[in-house]
Amino acid sequence: MTMRMGPHMAMGSDPESIKGIEVSSGIVRRVLGLARPYRAMMGGFLATIVLEALLDLAPPLVFRQIIDTTIPSGDRGQLNTLAMVVVGVALISAALSFGERWWSARIGEGLIYDLRVKLFDHVQRMPVAFFTRTQTGALISRLNNDVIGAQRAVTSTLGSVLSNVIVLSTTLTAMLILEWRLTLLALVLLPVFILPAKRVGRRMQALTREGFDLNSHMNTTMTERFNVAGALLVKLFGNYRQEADEFSARAGRVRDIGVRSAMFGRTFFIALGLVAAVGTAVVYWLGGQLVISGAITLGTLVALAAYVTRIYTPLTSLTNARVDIMTALVSFDRVFEVVDTPNPIEDRPGAYDLVEPAGRVQFDNVRFHYPSGDHGSLASLELVPPISDGDESDDLQAPTGNGKRPTPSEPVEVLKGVSLSIDPGQLVAVVGPSGAGKSTLCSLVPRLYDVSTGRVLIDGNDVRDLTQDSLHEAIGVVSQDPHLFHESVLANLRYANRDASMGQVEAACRAAQIHGVIADLPDGYSTIVGERGYRLSGGEKQRLAIARMLLKDPAIVVLDEATSHLDSENEALVQEALSVALHGRTSIVIAHRLSTITAADQILVVDRGRIVETGQHAELLELGGLYADLYRTLVRAEHDALPT
């Protein structure tokens, strides 16, 4: 039987990787539950391993028969038969090995599929607060490295442990039946090999950890330098030689580690070969004495010598079985940790669809504070290092050494008793100083967050009673910096409506004043926009986002400072696109431009989490309050921006 074991596995897993880690008692039951759909396959996998182990016992016994009986008797017919038996066993073992690999791959890849889909579906449904606190790289690592580690737990680790146990038990049983004294002698030599192997293994694992860290640094460097923004920064401010030297130093260390690891691995297998050779020699030496004395037959000695070479590798691997199994369970635990992260914004039992929305929006005494880190996020994905500058207030945001967060301070209220009513089809401008709570107010409409107290209502329905799918379908959002995927223009547009025809797409783009720009691109609507839409200007991205929103055809539109950073030419085009996009829809606009503010049916002035003034432009100017001050500031800013 071929042992599925590379040098790292044979030399033992890294005990440091599980040091101080505790796995809950229920994790094994949960892993078994996850593998339940594959029970039949795992049964076939186990049966294949057992059959392989038993078949591999046959050739030495056949050789024993040939040496002890067939050759002395001169029975050529029996010799031919036994030779064919050996060939047949080899063919059957090869077929079983193929089947075992199929079972292993099918179970492992099936688990990868199940875990990845489960993780992806759970993560994408998490609220915005989860993503604002989570490091993307750490999350992707869970989706890739830990899922693969969990898959290896079921196939490689479990398969290796089972295989080693079965091979060792069957081989030792056969050896003890043949000659117990030689069997014990072979086992006495094992510590001579295991103790040096452990020492070499620890050294090799230290090198492997260092290599992983260096590779992680190089991956981070390449990720940051090779995206469009990073490459541009390096070209404008960077030092190519310094960048290359730093990368070269890390790559050189990885090269050196690779060479040393290869030599350690070769040393290990040479030592394994030497011990096996010594064991075989001792068996032949003592066994030869027993053969000469007539205690055993020559065929028995040959069979025992063949079995001796089969016991050292599985015995060595099983000395590390606990670390292997714990490491595997840790991978599962890390995956389950993400899956078990509670989602505080889910559809209530009995939630219903918002049907044919008219677009009425109401806030009923809404108070809101942003959720703490313990509410819908995971400390181990934040990777915030401990603060060491003596600022104890910031320490409250960092996970403690055991992965838990300290008790947070009292949350700061962002909205304080906000009440408002917006009629269907109205254009409402939300203005106020920076940090007043404007974006927070708008984010509660599509239920990106849940209110702390009070209610947000759409057409008289509390948004928490509606299904999120129907709520999001009724609301379109154009943000200050609209996100585009690294796909074609058409794919980005159809993200809002997968079934949109080409005619509908072009009509939306014409309405958004962007069709001509797209037509002039090298591949038209098939042009790849680049990472985050880097091939397009700010104004072009805004108009593309408006076209995407038009394809969605929502009843309510939220514009979060969509024109605040545009020049006057782009602003004029975007405003023309917005005049079409907002017609007949309830529109909530966080505005910094005079044209949007003065055209609003209603203006909400927000300050320190409260609506302090409400009315139309002329009315609010007459009041001479905060709005009048803000308006005069805008007038001066826009006047100063005009070309002289």
Description of the structure:
With about 650 residues, the protein is of the alpha/beta class. It folds into two domains: about 15-340, ABC transporter transmembrane region fold (Up-down Bundle), CATH 1.20.1560.10; about 360-370 and about 410-640, Rossmann fold (3-Layer(aba) Sandwich), CATH 3.40.50.300. About 60% of the residues lie in helices and about 10% in strands. The chain has helices at about 5-10, 25-35, 40-75, 75-125, 130-135, 135-180, 180-190, 190-225, 230-235, 240-295, 300-310, 310-320, 320-340, 380, 390-395, 440-445, 470-475, 490-495, 500-510, 515-520, 540-550, 570-580, 595-600, 615-625, 625-640; strands at about 360-370, 415-420, 425-430, 455-460, 460, 475-480, 555-560, 585-590, 600-605, 610-615. A six-stranded mixed beta sheet has the order 6-7-8-3-9-10. α3 (about 40-75) runs antiparallel to α11 (about 300-310) and α6 packs across α12 (about 310-320). The longest helix has about 55 residues, at about 240-295.
Outline:
This protein is an alpha/beta fold. Helices cover 61% and strands 9% of the residues.
Top keywords for this entry?
61% helix, Rossmann fold, 4-stranded antiparallel sheet, 10 strands, 644 residues, elongated, disordered N terminus, ABC transporter transmembrane region fold, alpha/beta
Strand content: 5-15%
- The low-pLDDT segments are 1-12, 384-403
Count of DSSP strands? 10
CATH domain class name of the largest domain: Mainly Alpha
